[in-house]
Amino acid sequence: MGAAEGFSGLPGGVAVSHLSVYDWPAEADGGVCGGTPHMHLTCSEGYVVTGGRGAVQTLTMSGTTSGYEVTPLAAGTIAWFTPGTIHRLVNEGDLRITVLMQNSGLPEAGDAVLTLPPQYLTDPETYASVTVIPADAPEAEQERVARARRDLALEGYRALRDAEGPEALAAFHRAAAALVRPRLAEWRERWERGARAAATATGAQLDWLEQGDFSHLAGAAVRAEQPSAYGKFGMCGRLDVYKGM
Fold first, then answer.
1. pTM value?
2. pLDDT digits (tens, 9 = 90+) for 73-87
3. What 3-state DSSP class applies to 12?
4. Which tens digits make up the pLDDT trace of 3-21?
5. Phi-psi group of 181: left, alpha or beta (phi > 0 → left; psi -120 to 50 → alpha; rest → beta)
6. How far apart, in whole angstroms, are the C-alpha atoms of residue 240 and residue 245?
């Protein structure tokens, strides 16, 4: 047996966080409460709604036009979407979600581009100047930055949603892909350690069982973990996160 049997992450190389969606009203958007619209480039993401109510607004390329949809969210709802889906969570009352993230939590570890106006998407430094929340700042300052970047992303989001034809959305896709290019090697390494390793382990175990070798079952293990941080300012709300996710 090889190293493939040793994968010990969550099933399938996913990650989990617990999200309390922001209840901050956006004055420029009629006072609607919610998070920061953004898009993932390589990861699918899933929501398991555990309490409250709200919705996820999504914007995708549909044929030659832009497709805008609103999916209601209530306790018990499961919703998920694939890379390229611009999404914005709306909080209509204590909306709480367990978030399932592909590729060992990559969606919260870099694979996201906020829908900022085009002038902020020109290069990684300009983008970071309005999106990075200083980890050592007081909580009040972290909240101020999180709210400011949310409102700035809503400005770009509204322009994309209201645009006629697919050109504006295609331009955002192009800018987002250019922004993340310097980090692709890092993302590939995370994928190799996580989802790819998990799939490889399953393949190896199937091979062994076909050969009558079940010795990997003797290495069974149970693991449990509590969140490593509570109330972290995320893109969509306050997050309880786990180590390495």
1. 0.92
2. 999 999 999 999 999
3. helix
4. 445 688 899 999 999 999 9
5. alpha
6. 10
